Amino acid sequence: MNYILFLTKHHDGFCLWDTDTTELKVTNSPLGIDVLARLKHSCDKYGLKLALYCLAGDWTWPGAKDGKYMGGGHNPETKKAQLAELLTRYGPIEFLWMDTAVGLGGLDRKPTIDWIHRFQPNAFVGYPHKGMGPRMTMREMGRPGPFDEVEKERGYLVAEFTYPILPPHEGGANWFYSLPKHDNLCKKAGDLYKHYVEGVQYGNIFSLNVGPGYDGKLREIDVKTLREVGEMIRTDN
Question: Considering only Cβ atoms within 10 Å of each terminal Cβ, which end of the chain, N or C, has fewer?
């Protein structure tokens, strides 16, 4: 691994850092710690770069549509304040994966990117499904490969592709921890390594999604598989 891409907040608006913008945060939970601060400390300790997944909208913001998955609310000032916290409190951020599944939160892509670069001008910013970057294109549930004609025309510098370590299955989640009955399901190390090699070949960034379980830890099968992939990378097999 060269970096960690950390999910700071998902659709429900619960922040995994000690934000000043809402009481809906991890430091108010029984855990009581700033998870992102702990992660940043570990990244520095082990020489890993830090990237952040950020949600552009939020179900807790005004105007959110109850019961509708895509119905996020609008709160541009809070969105800007949260991005400012993330970009000023936790050191250099390599890139931001801006999810728009519940809308843009009242601040469009271009002003969001300008706001981000106000604090960290070197950070890459990407939106899913070839959304304006401008430096980075995101291939959610994608595969390694060269730029297509649209990506070439837009002048992207790098492509990131990502998918869950869990293979397709019935019931439970894909991007998060699924269910205990699926604890023996995991993509094969050889297949993951193949995509890593192809990603390097095409100059892609390969982000592999691994969701912690109910106890906050990675599944044993995930750890075993990741160690196998790491050994393949080190020995170039």
Answer: C
Are 171 and 179 within 8 A, CB to CB?
yes
Q: Three-state SS string across 128-140, please?
A: ECCECCCCEEEEE
114-124 per-residue burial string, b: 16 or more CB within 10 A, e: under 16: ebbeeebeebb
pTM, two decimals, is 0.93
How far from 187 is each of 168, 180, 191, 220, 222, CA to CA, in Å?
9, 16, 7, 13, 9
Query: Which is nearest to 169 in space by CA: 157, 159, 181, 161?
Result: 181
* CA separation for the pair 117, 54 (Å, rounded): 15
pLDDT in tens, 57-115: 899 999 998 766 678 899 999 999 999 999 999 999 999 999 998 999 999 999 999 99
* pLDDT per residue as tens digits for the range 108-144: 999 999 999 999 999 999 998 766 677 999 999 999 9
Tokens 């430096």 label which residue? 135
